[in-house]
Amino acid sequence: MANIKSALKRIEIAERNRLHNRSYKSAVKTLSKSYLAALEAYQADPTPENMETVQARMAAAYSKIDKAIKRGILHPNTGARKKSRLARALKAREAQEIAAS
Asked: Cβ(28)–Cβ(74) under 8 Å?
């Protein structure tokens, strides 16, 4: 354990930042999972209401990812990759729909 006052303060700040960053990362994961669940529900029952839910969840996930990037919690390339994977999941579902038609 550190004995110097400034080192003790840095330990406290680092812990505070770690918890804040963890909550952001957890929120990104939660919103991504809720988006994918909404996408599954839309695939099972393709109604306009379900598509609105999918779009709303996607917007929420994108927003949280963008905020995490802006605050330095996620690297910009990591955020872009996460957003790309969400968009690609929707495109894959749409392609399956068209193929099934």
From this structure: yes
- pLDDT averaged per 10 residues in sequence order, the chain, 101 residues: 92 96 96 96 90 95 97 96 96 79 66
What number of H helices and E strands is found in the chain? 3, 0
pLDDT of residue 75: 97
Q: Which pTM was predicted? A: 0.85
> Is 19 contained in some domain?
no
In a domain, 85, yes or no: yes
Number of domains present in the structure of the chain: 1
Angle between helices 76-100 and 5-44 (to 10 degrees): 10
Give backbone dihedrals phi and psi of 71, rounded to 5 degrees, phi first: -90, 0
Query: Does any domain span residue 42?
Result: no
Interatomic CA distance for residues 27 and 61, integer angstroms = 9
Domain ranges, residue 56: 49-101
